[in-house]
Specification:
Layout lengths: L4 E2 L3 E5 L5 H8 L2 H4 L9 H18 L3 E6 L5 E8 L13 E6 L8 H13 L5 E6 L4 H9 L3 E4 L2 E2 L2 E2 L1 E6 L6
Antiparallel strand pairs: 1-2, 2-3, 3-4, 4-5, 6-10, 7-10, 8-9
Helix pairs in contact: 1-3
């Protein structure tokens, strides 16, 4: 069973079929997809995305969470870990972290809050995570760096330049 992670302002939980309308709102926004695929997603693509997320939990015991506002229950984004088997050199050889928020929720520290909860959970069993970020996505690069990710490669992915970053769990002395 996927965990439910809570923070001061957010609830992170596994996707359900009922999340389709909120997820479609998220992934059909051109500002959201600007650095992720470059175009808004179709309803069919969003439905496939939700099914892929559910499948991650079933097969890998990790996956993506829908991020909801703790007070209103509104879907504001997604955060999680995945293995997309990307055709990339060097290959991505650890769970890949990703995050996305609706534009009206950006700039409030919510992505950092969600990622901190995710990584605190992941650090219990995953010694290393990676992320792939468009080199022009300065806010995501800044957030990744603040959370301990460091660049390790600059490959191309689907013909476009990208940045690969990694984060190792730091062992703290007892």
């Amino acid at each position: 069973m996927p965990p439910i992670l809570t923070t001061e302002r957010l609830i992170l939980r596994a996707h359900t079929a009922a999340d389709f309308p909120g997820c479609y709102t998220l992934w059909s926004d051109p500002d959201v997809t600007r650095f992720i695929g470059g175009r808004p997603s179709t309803p069919e693509e969003v439905w496939s995305r939700i099914l892929r997320y559910i499948g991650h939990w079933q097969v890998l015991d990790y996956g993506y969470f829908v991020i909801t506002d703790r007070e209103s229950g509104t879907i504001i984004g997604e955060v999680g870990l995945a293995d997309f088997h990307r055709d990339c050199d060097p290959p991505i050889d650890a769970p890949e972290a990703g995050w996305v928020l609706l534009p009206q929720y950006q700039g409030r520290g919510l992505a950092r809050e969600a990622l901190t909860a995710l990584l605190t959970w992941a650090d219990q069993t995953m010694p290393r995570t990676v992320c792939m970020i468009d080199p022009d996505n300065a806010p995501s690069l800044k957030l990744a760096t603040a959370l301990g990710y460091t660049e390790y490669a600059r490959p191309t992915y689907k013909g476009e330049p990208t940045t690969l970053l990694e984060r190792m769990v730091r062992n703290t002395p007892a």
